[in-house]
Amino acid sequence: MTLYRDAWGIPHLRADSANELAFAQGHNAALDRAWQIEVERHRSRGTTAAFLGPGAVGWDRFARQARLDDTARRCLRTLDREDPDTATWLRHYVDGVNAGLAEGASRSPEFAATGLAPGHWEPWTPLGIWLSTHILFAGFPTKLWREEVARRLGEDWTGLFATDGPGTAGSNGWLVPGDRTVTGAAVLAGDPHRFIEAPGVYQQIRLACPEFDVIGLAVPGVPGIAHFGHTGHVAWSITNAMADYQDLYAERLRRGGGGEGADSGGADGTDGANASAPDHSPGAGGLCGAVDFYGTVEALGPDGWRPVARHVETIEVAGADPVRVAILETERGPVIIPPAPGSATAPYPAPASDPANDGGGHALAVSLRYPPRVREDLGFAVLPALLRAKTVADVDRALDRWVEPVNVVHAADTAGGTLHRVAGAVPLRHPGNRLRVAPAWEADRAWRGWHHPMPGETVRDPAIMANQRGIASPLGVEFAPPHRAERIRSLLDRQALWSAGDMAAIHRDTRLASAEPLLRLLAGLDHADGHRDGHHRDGHRTSHRTGRRDGRGDHSADGGDGTGPTSAPGPASASASASASALAPAPAGAPVSSLASAPGESEPTTARLSPAAADLRDRLLRWDRHMDADSTDAAAFATVRARVVRRLAEHPVLAPLAVPPPHPDVFQPWLALVPRVAFALETLLTSDRIPGADRIEAVRRAVEETAAEEAGSAGQPRRWGDLHRLAPWQALPEPAPGRRTGGADGAAEPVPAVPDTAAEPIPGAPDTAPDIRPALSGDHDCVLATSSVPGLTHHSARASAARFVWDLARREDSRWIVPLGASGIPGHPHRSDQLPLWVRGDLVPVVTDWSLLTPEPAGRGPAGPDPIRREDTVPPEARHPSALAPSPATSPHRTTNHRTTNHRTTNHRTTAQPSQERHDPRRLP
């Protein structure tokens, strides 16, 4: 087997058999991503607190209570029984990890910093990693949120916050069939939206053996290429289907007849000797500790009281005492929220159907039922089948066995075949199970089989999937707003034929359609001097400038379709070329005042704006609705929006939700009021649940405060990129930079602190890491989805975890990018070398010619000196320096040397405009 690398350090693996290749993939993951995959192994087992400390106890408790590691073991047993060839292939991957882990750990300073020794991987470890990575994808904690809304506000309020919540994972994906491309062959493109982690959650990789040759995005620690791949014959991609396939059950538990002191001991070897010292902290312990149950436990089901499996496990905690956790499992599933001490802190009141309910709100436990635990199968048989696929029929047939997570799939092949379907396991059950916590004792709440066949449709026009309601609608409850999907379709409709090289311009589109409700309310505010709706007293409309600091991009804010500013396409960036573009702004259409005329929206109010607020109001109504990093108007809008969110969250109508319930910490992102208001802002601004006058007043005060803040600030107005910065998650953070380069003269200027990322340096890590918290364009509902939580933070923790373009005409014309780089080792040249291009929305070439790759000598690891000369490995059309250089007009880093606190970076020359596919990538063709 041989490891090659391209200009970006991306591994290309070649072996003589599929099993040998699986070993090579595991070995490479251990060398390039040792720290990352070991953290993931510990997360799947619930043992991260042993080296990360008390802050990791919450996740470890959940992982153990949900039985993630045990479920992975069961899934392996099923794989051994039903598909021994895949089980053997999986074991070869694990053998490769074990063979390389010690060497990989020696190169990763995090191991020494934490005192963690590399462990031994079991055959089921990759299944556990896959499960722990995706267990929260279906958003089952939202059912807990609905319980809180119903209890505190009333049953008819539960739909008020219906939108994709703060913890969901989203994606963009589009399939352009051959009759809409310049080559006559299909093109697939997209980007999965996840929490950005360092190292990244996806690894660019190539896997080649006599049976197949596949490029794609792998999950480190898991063999094969599950989500995004191109075999040369067929390509596939996925998005989150937003399906609901996990249920929560209210469980009434009682003591059984086992007697006092009958502790069964823990799976980790504990014998219950110290069970007399339970953990009474909120959400901790469990039934056995919290209410002193030491005998058998029973749960009330449809057929009466039935035994509950139970044992006690101990979580070791670095720098703190161990934590004992009661592990309970009913016939429905593992108990993930046990009763806390006393009914005052019950998870939620007992439903009326509870046979023991006397109206007093009895304490109930909550169990989780999820498909891999029920089926004892994760669908891993699909992974080698995808690698061998030659047609969309092969992909379709393979995905019939997929389990979790449930995805919408696009696929296309070189023969012209296309596929658009849902894949995964969704149970058939009572519709109420999708919305709320289900009573365990009601027979009609049990699962009754599986949805089959899964929904699909024929691809006639470009197929678009962006987590909106679509073919997966029968399987879910809450979906993403339609803005991203509608915007992608609008962009694709503006041009007859597309090429793979055109797709990056769609990726980087920053149009924010969800700004409309707030801007309509803003348009209804009166000025103190009597003018309103974007008109001065002399009747002349104000000029339409974008509000960028340097005055670039002087164009109309009205849409090319004549519908007014809410549909203005605008350029993807102010540095767009002058080439003909189907997305270039058209002449002015409807007036700005159309914002105030929509029926059911804001009525004229007697509230008067101060002159400064009136000027800000006019600026925002002239704004082109693009969340570009260099836009001062985008920053002003985001600031106003954040203040509106906070004011609505403080409104008396919503005040009962301000105090989160005492559920485990791992569920709190779904239960906090401010994020819920932020993501449901469109609904809240147009719903009569909050009185119209109060909504208008919230907007007026937000504008006044923002205008006053701007007037009192020194220097020029802030740009969106000054506020909106990448905040990647790291198990062991690197130090946060405190300064960045800004002006054209290279002078450094302060940047806002990132509250949740300040950290001490990793001992032993080279001081060469670049700024991994750069300024960003985009926003939550933009195609360029860089999500923040308005009202809480402008920083973005969730964005495109990768971007890809799969060309079915010429695979070598495909493109891809990840947020950081190919290496997971701090200080490595490929740790974050793709970041500047990712920030700008550019892509790097997929190299398929082996002669353009550099073989890595045996024993040479990615932590050593960079053996790759980019000019030797980049395809000829991309070898010009401009192909690799960030754009000085759009990149937040405009100088040749990036100086930051505790960091210095390698030289990034930015003297030339980028060139890719021989056209300016800043503007769509």
TrEMBL record:
Keywords: Calcium, Hydrolase, Metal-binding, Zymogen. Residues 256-269 have a biased composition (Gly residues). Ca(2+) binds at residues 244, 247. Residues 564-600, 881-894 have a biased composition (Low complexity). It comes from the Bacteria. GO terms for molecular function: hydrolase activity, acting on carbon-nitrogen (but not peptide) bonds, in linear amides; metal ion binding. The active site is at 171 (nucleophile). Residues 537-547, 895-907 have a biased composition (Basic residues). It holds the Pfam family Penicil_amidase. The keyword Metal-binding applies. Residues 548-558, 867-880, 916-925 have a biased composition (Basic and acidic residues). Binds 1 Ca(2+) ion per dimer. InterPro entries: Ntn_hydrolases_N (IPR029055), Pen/GL7ACA/AHL_acylase (IPR014395), Penicillin_amidase_A-knob (IPR043147), Penicillin_amidase_dom1 (IPR023343), Penicillin_amidase_N_B-knob (IPR043146), S45 (IPR002692). Its cofactor is Ca(2+). Belongs to the peptidase S45 family. This is Penicillin acylase family protein.
